[in-house]
Amino acid sequence: MNIYDQDLPRTPANFVALTPMSFVERTAEVFGDLPAIIHGARRCDWATLRDRSARLAAALQALGIDRGDTVSTLLPNTPEMVEAHYAVPALGAVINTLNTRLDAALLAWQMNHCAAKVLITDREFSPTVSAALAQLKDMGREIVVIDVCDSEYTGPGDRLGSHDYEALLAAHDPLPRLDGAADEWDAIAVSYTSGTTGDPKGVVTHHRGAYLNAVSNAVTWTMPQFPRYLWTLPMFHCNGWCFPWTVAMQAGVHVCLRRVDGASILAAMRAHGVDHYCAAPIVHNGILGAVAADPALREGIGAVRGMVAGAAPPAAMIEGMAQLGFDITHVYGLTEVYGPAAVASKRASWAQADLSEQTRLNGRQGVRYPLQEGMTVMDPETMTEVPADGQTMGEIMFRGNIVMKGYLKNPTATAKAFEGGWFHTGDLAVLEPDRYVKIKDRSKDIIISGGENISSIEVEDALYRHPAVLACAVVARPDPKWGETPLAFVELKPGAEVTAEALVAHCRQLLAGYKVPRDIRFEPIPKTSTGKIQKFQLRERAKSASAIE
């Protein structure tokens, strides 16, 4: 033992587990009188937001939620979703934010897989939730349902649970403190993503990673204190890229937006002085489209900074936003790395380049986040880094604290993802001479449409269930609105006949609407001598964003 290990113990005075709950407590303590939430006519400050979150935590605790238990949410970008991100982890419990676009079968599967004990749901989704609850019951799982009746929602929808959200909060005194996990390695969230097999994988993330990524978000963006952040990115997607906790750290304002479209975004920016937002390319394109239709929508809006991720952002979108006066930062990541974990970090010298070159530079996946320990492009066979020549292809890999714990109940997939001591993204890229990463292909057969992942294999499985289909392959096709949409190539069985419209209708019975192919082409599918489909040829036919440039 050396002298620096003697009589220098780790104690509560000098070591505290990292958890983003500490951001909420600090901001409520120091800036409790400052605004925290704007949602329609609703307003609350940070002291009130912390109080409401602590009441929700107390209510969940009374319902039996403890360390390691799962609480699912099916909510739009409303104050209740923010409160759930503060209350659930405060108990050492795990938040499972469900995608509001999923069908009942997948919702039930996910809640059953993560053993959810409580579901907090907005009544807008009651038809789908009702069907999901029936399926959960058939699986032998009972779940407590808490209904949210959002003041900004006036449409139909039944109350399904035994608890009303507001009544539940009113019935419980707030916990004295939002403590978070005692061990920073404890799970904070489980988020489901499609894998190459088409089966959902439960990505388990931890308090340490959420804390560090929340900090990295602010550092990467040089986000000042007291930002006004507009919720255009779904909070159900990778926990809003950890921004519920970043906004808390910076004592900002959550400007909630239940419905996302270009005109509504611009109106919220103007009304509330919004200066930051995150979104997939489709949302940025929606802003451009709204201004093109009515240039007056841009008036009265100050300096705004946007973050874009998802499908590779089209050059026209980056150029268009620059011409609009919006400062766009391109980030890259996956659910397995808490959302964004790399950034096309802008250098001062880039400003001297013409707009076309700036667009090329900003369109790259970039370099690792400040608190991510490693990101590079490696040969997955030899686990050696490729040369920084902008030509040699390899796989993007990450390592560090902003990497998931692993896949829930899937040790085989976890071990494969972490082979060689690095997280394998499955995205193929080059390392450019300045060591910025540029994606060239996607080895995972995943289509990113409107920022949401679609497994091509899942879509193919649906097509194969039609009796006329002999062979099929689904690839990504560039789409000016959605970024990418599924394009299906189909070969029919001898003598069989079916129309594209009939196949689309067939898929609609089996898949969520956004996963259904937008186009079906009846063409011969290229195969190897062993019968393996050569998707790279189909991507080239489709001029897919996944094709090698």
Q: Give the C-alpha Rg.
A: 24 Å
Mean pLDDT: 91
Separation of the first and last Cα atoms: 56 Å
State which percent range the strand residues make up: 25-35%
β-strand number? 27
Keywords: Fatty acid metabolism, Ligase, Lipid metabolism
GO biological process, one term: fatty acid metabolic process
Protein name: Acyl-CoA synthetase
InterPro entries: AMP-bd_C, AMP-bd_C_sf, AMP-binding_CS, AMP-dep_synth/lig_dom, ANL_N_sf
Summarize the structure.
With 549 residues, the chain is of the alpha/beta class. The protein has a 9-stranded mixed sheet with strand order 2-1-11-10-12-13-14-15-16, with helices on both faces. It has a 5-stranded parallel sheet with strand order 4-3-5-6-7, with helices on both faces.
What does this protein look like?
This protein is of the alpha/beta class and 549 residues long. The protein folds into three domains: 21-215, Rossmann fold (3-Layer(aba) Sandwich); 260-442, ANL, N-terminal domain (Rossmann fold, 3-Layer(aba) Sandwich); 446-542, 2-Layer Sandwich (GMP Synthetase, Chain A, domain 3). It has 17 helices and 27 strands. A nine-stranded mixed beta sheet has the order 2-1-11-10-12-13-14-15-16, with helices on both faces. Strand 23 and strand 24 form a beta hairpin. Helix 1 crosses helix 2 and helix 1 (21-31) packs parallel to helix 9 (243-249). The protein is globular and about 70 Å long. One of its GO terms (molecular function) is ligase activity. Keywords: Fatty acid metabolism, Ligase, Lipid metabolism. Residues 458-532 form the AMP-binding enzyme C-terminal domain. Residues 25-408 form the AMP-dependent synthetase/ligase domain.
